[in-house]
Q: What sequence folds into this?
């Protein structure tokens, strides 16, 4: 089935494999008149690219993006924006062995079960490299949201047992620490933990949190197109994510109503809430408070210690994976969570513009 | 926006408000030739309907379903199936007061922010009654999945601090306990806890788990239409759900790869896994193991104790909600989780039928 | 497949068979705040209903519509509007014979080929009665378009060899003549022709034209969602339509560029065209001129003279169709063309509201 | 809005402008296991490319396609296929003048009305060059349909006053004549007519017919996803098409039922029809007979004689268009009609595979 497209009005279609010629994305439905150049997109791709620290794979990819269409004289035209990112570091020979067996925790077996065979070089389409297209498209959504006064910021909340601490919260650190933690101290401890993991030929998981500020009330639609439902889909569609929380998330199941309800109050004409257990969404529609979500990311499945598995002939074998792998997926996935959140929010904001007859009248009857 | 439709090939559209004339659903894309009568659907609606125990709202609704189209001589025809459930217990007078203010934890404020006004009787479209249409449609999906050898079973895993225990697991208890727990002992303790909540004019949350058996490997699509992504959307779209987990869910963020990876092995020609931390999904595609997901449900926002809030004039006020409300949403939402899971799986199974050229050849070149 | 839904933002889903319990439609995505009552819809259904003249089937259907959801205190709420039209004149016994064979020109054979069996009573889902749901939904679109200053008017242009004459054009006559021709004289001649057809146990075809005034320039989208492309789909989806023309339509293939091009000119600040061969659409986007389209409707396939066909056992047989049938489909389909045009235009107008970044800024940054 | 995607299961997204860096298309949902190389696609692009005869624009474009993803070891993998066609002959300087005014018959004015500005070089996204992506995607659909025994063949039926004659019908001539007429004699006369047009600085229109053989009965879905409705949309979405006919098309409006009905008969176990006025579609579903459709194409709007129009300042001016333009669009659009027909049919064939419960059982319960 056609699974590489997401969005209703701001619609993106990604394509490309880990070791193919290139990766890319087509953004269709971007409003006309947005200033856009390659650098606007590159800054986000740079946050995702590998080989930038001692806790990342040494594989090098320049991930240089090129705009092929949809921009004229520096502005978006309203027609599809095609973005291309050539692959430069394909060592397909690395993967000859992998072709014959199924790596635990990877999609090797399920792709074969579905399609009868697979592109086994670097995971093909199931590789984390697939997210480059998401990030490139997300960069455009983030730029447009910013012009509407909406900011989206994701960061690492925890890696293995190490969590950030509220008292040390420092947004700038997201962009300077190797872990993308907004907490220098936690970053140090997490880095130490990761080095230990690597020494043990193991990997670990972690949590990414995303914070949205400036989102007006009224975004999202009832029933199946609830804002949280679409965010859950967008975030869970990122490889390795196994749980999504909105606001207090899993804590709501063990609390009581008198604690979980957020009391409304008015101040200076604005509708506010005393607490924000709901994470900014009530009944699937934004309530004007900060939107908060979390993604739980599993440990990198490629580990260097010995594992049991089977080969394509159905024989039980033991393997030791080689190659270049991150000991934790989280830091490089932070910007992917930011991108997917932005894409979902922008689409919902656009959809909201036809919610009332008065909006149509204002639009079509203006002098 | 049009948010009341979900599904690509097996597509449902729900409609109706808590206190309107009726609720309903149109199922479009149901394959022709399924035996179907009203009783097939009624048995699921009965599991959702209120007023069945001491821990449920005393509000009575018969929730009798009528098939209006799409079935001829006892079989589905392939054309849309329209199901109607009349509302019989609308006491709109109960709600005159609610019209003027915003209940904490409810969608009152966000609906007003979006649409400029709202149907305030019983929550209108944002009421939990909206799920009757989902359950009715889900009953058809469940029946068809069963004919393909796929079973979907949801149950209450915990209510407040009370969780089921593996050693007491008893599937039959789901349908006989008031809590829908597959554990008689946990049911007793949860019931006691709920009565205490009610006495304190409070409410509580809980966890619903859903277990799918018999799903073949290969279901789901890469990238944005991953099976877990669509399940996350379907489950998060249920009102009051604030977190969705697949397999080990949130636990993956604090574990290591050597523990989280599920080793494959072969036995009797079948591909099996020694563990199932992944919950039956790898790379967004089913791997043939049991599929497991969990929904975290917030406490019922309608509590009888005093709460701070605002009215439509922007004045800070205090309210005490009256009416008929469940102290916990979980037991009545169990069948909703089952329905949404079934709808998602059936759609994915249908989508999978065109994944290979050989499938098309087998279909169109049969003698 | 799920084929009973159309529209992206203003989305409708129809259901129901000719001789089932009822027909209906769910309109999802209707903006909130539109005054709506059953009479608004009934006036359009009345134009479609049978048994109103000597050239229509004597079958009687009251086609009374009931609003089941989506309207509160006289206004649309933004949530799905469910409309129900009970069937009252089902004489299924009429159809026992038809079950065994395939009527020429009908969908009997193709439904059996697709689904393995069919609801043979009155054509089931393939009956012209299916369009009642379209007309009911179209009534809402027409009402909303009117509030935006856009009028949509369809009428009969020709029946068999009888065409309306420009010099006699009289819009009011559409609603008073049995043929729905805006020309009293042509109506008389067409009526005479039809009576002759009926006497010969035959039927005839005709042309429906639709004229849209007040549509602003800029509606429709490039490439696949061109306004004319979506109109062509909407109109061709009406049973019995075999050709769709926009503007000069088929005449463009035998003309030259110097005649077919419409010259632009400016007058009083407005952009106008000296001619309108294009029918108001250039490059798939409205140009501000009147939009004009035509549907060519085939003769009613149910004729009373003897015909060759086959039965379900594959035997060549001869049949004489009995029952209650219109000698021409056109007059009752006029309001269906109007409805489908309105649904398509309203959806396109809503989609256009996010075409520019400046529109988003105006919307979200208003004080 | 996002208008550059079409299809439900076999979904394509085109991008690119006439004078941008490149054009392309992403095909998502192509089944796995189809042998595919660039030459398979190139042969279709070569039929569309300009500069191949005395009656075509002398502009040269090599239109070389490159496969960037979705094919591994010579076979489609089931993941998105990205195709790139670099632009090589961009003389943007040609277009400096056009930027200031609106060409009659072109989308210049409507793009400005919609987006506030436009890429004026060569028509930007509204250029006929946009169809290169359609043809590239169509080539894949055509290859797959062929493996299912379904052939799709389009050809020029008429150019201006010159029509092909049944007695001279010669399919091979489609690929050898400059007009793509399956009639050498008509080709000569049409060529003479076109040269006369060119001398008069004028252009002309024509008709393209498309013939489908081998399509089984049962393809297409009732109501809005009728096969003819989707074909009408696909064909009308091609720039310059102003009318679409199925089977007898416009002739049905002036005929009678006894002539228009196609009588069924059985022969050798097969269900056949004595005539095929319906063009192979009844009730929106294929009936097993040849599928026939026609597109009416307007004259090339770029003519070299003087025309009245306005500039962006709203002044009435006179222009003479320069540049490289085809005197007739038809021959180069033949393969576009073939592509759009194939894309629509393949999608409908895939959608049909879930029409019956028995199909699902056969698929999922095979040993």
A:
């Amino acid at each position: 089935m056609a699974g590489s497209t997401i969005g209703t009005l701001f619609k993106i279609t990604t394509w490309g494999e880990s070791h193919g010629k290139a990766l890319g994305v087509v953004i269709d439905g971007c409003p006309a008149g947005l200033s856009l150049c390659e650098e606007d997109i590159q800054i986000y791709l740079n946050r995702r690219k590998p080989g930038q620290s001692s806790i990342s794979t040494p594989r090098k990819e320049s991930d240089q993006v090129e705009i092929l269409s949809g921009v004229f004289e520096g502005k978006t035209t309203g027609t599809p924006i095609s973005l291309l990112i050539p692959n430069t570091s394909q060592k397909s020979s690395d993967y000859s062995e992998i072709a014959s067996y199924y790596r635990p925790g990877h999609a090797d077996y399920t792709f074969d079960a579905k399609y009868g065979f697979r592109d086994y070089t670097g995971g093909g389409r199931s590789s984390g490299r697939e997210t480059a297209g998401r990030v490139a498209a997300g960069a455009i959504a983030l730029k447009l949201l910013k012009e509407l006064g909406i900011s989206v910021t994701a960061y690492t909340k925890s890696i293995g047992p190490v969590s950030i601490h509220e008292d040390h919260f420092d947004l700038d650190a997201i962009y300077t620490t190797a872990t993308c933690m907004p907490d220098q101290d936690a970053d140090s401890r997490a880095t130490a933990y990761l080095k230990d993991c690597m020494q043990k030929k193991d990997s670990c998981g972690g949590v990414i949190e995303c914070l949205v500020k400036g989102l007006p009330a009224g975004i999202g639609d009832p029933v199946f197109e609830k804002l949280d439902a679409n965010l859950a889909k967008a975030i869970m569609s990122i490889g390795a994510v196994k749980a999504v929380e909105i606001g207090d998330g899993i804590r709501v199941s063990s609390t009581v109503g008198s604690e979980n309800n957020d009391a409304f109050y008015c101040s200076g004409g604005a509708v506010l809430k005393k607490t924000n257990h709901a994470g900014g969404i009530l009944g699937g529609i934004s309530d004007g408070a900060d939107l908060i979500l979390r993604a739980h990311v599993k440990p990198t499945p490629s580990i260097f210690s010995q594992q049991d598995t089977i080969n394509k002939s159905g024989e039980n074998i033991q393997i030791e994976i080689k190659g270049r792998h991150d000991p934790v997926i989280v830091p490089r996935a932070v910007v992917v969570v930011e991108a997917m959140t932005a894409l979902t929010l922008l689409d919902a904001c656009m959809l909201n513009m036809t919610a009332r007859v008065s909006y149509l009248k204002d639009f079509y009857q203006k002098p």
Remarks:
- The radius of gyration of chain C is 22 Å.
- The helical segments of chain C are 38-48, 108-115, 131-147, 184-199, 227-236, 257-260, 330-351, 357-364.
